[in-house]
Amino acid sequence: MLQFIFLAFFALFVSASAGAAxxxxxxxxxxxxxxxxxxxxIAEDIAEAKAQxxxxxxxxxxxxxxxxxxxxxxxLSDPEVRDYIKANFLVVQxxxxxxxxxxxxxxxxxxxxxAARKWGYIFTPTIVFLPEDAGARVSVSKAAIATMPGAFGxxxxxxxxxxxxxxxxxxxxxxxxxxxxxxxxxxxxGKLISED
Length: 196
What we know:
By secondary structure, this protein is α+β, with helices and mostly antiparallel strands. About 45% of the residues lie in helices and about 15% in strands. The strands form 3 sheets. The protein has a 4-stranded mixed sheet, with helices on both faces. The longest helix is centred in the first third of the chain and has 19 residues, at about 1-20. It comes from Neorhizobium phenanthreniclasticum. Keywords: Signal. Pfam families: Thioredoxin_2 (PF13098). This is Thioredoxin family protein.
């Protein structure tokens, strides 16, 4: 009887964990339940993020991208990373080759794929961090605070989100210096054995 109760509890735990994992959408992209679905009007998304006390991050992905899969399975599944991003960012997913309509900050209406070309994003995943306010009517590529092209390990990934959230880009500490400092602090405290 005790064995049956244990197995039932284990099955419940596994199904609950699986429910939190990313799923694959009809477009072939991994979907996190906490990603935001919007009308992809960048100025409106920046305003919505600000209203929630967050920052806007756009993530470009594509069907079959092994690095996107790794980002979802190894990085975004980590509770420390996931919880920090959920609490501090409104994340909107774009399909690098998609046809959904996008309104750039300069007012131009594009498809996702033409926006990727216009903004110069050619790798997936690419995460684009936008300013707190829409500001001047310039293209996203000119307005972006930072861009993270490609897949990175946990600490580089998380520290980029922290660097943006803390507005460290406004100071003189370059991201690489910031990242190295945080890694050293984690090592010194014994909280980090290997970087990623």
